[in-house]
Design brief:
This protein is about 35% helix and about 10% strand. The chain has 3 helices and 2 strands, in the order E-H-H-E-H. The protein has helices at about 15-20, 40-45, 60-65; strands spanning about 1-5, 50. A two-stranded antiparallel ribbon has the order 1-2. The longest helix has 10 residues, at about 60-65. The radius of gyration is 13 Å and the shape is elongated.
């Protein structure tokens, strides 16, 4: 389904979308319940669930990683 990549800094999802890479945001409702300093907030904002199921070839995964 996906690989939950957690970079040290926030990576712009807009840049990924411009590169035709859709990275979903899981659990956005958590942001309304926690402060920005809490781990859960950082997880929602920084976690990039990289798609990696049977539809992707090695070349397409390499392209995604190069953009990231």
């Amino acid at each position: 389904m996906c690989y939950p990549y957690m970079p040290r800094q926030v990576i712009s999802r807009d840049n990924l979308i411009k590169s035709r890479i859709f990275i979903p945001t899981y659990w956005p409702e958590v942001l309304a319940r926690v402060t920005e300093d809490e781990f859960e907030s950082k997880f929602v904002k920084r976690c990039l669930p990289i798609p990696c199921d049977q539809r992707y070839t090695e070349d397409s995964l390499d392209r995604i990683l190069n953009v990231i």
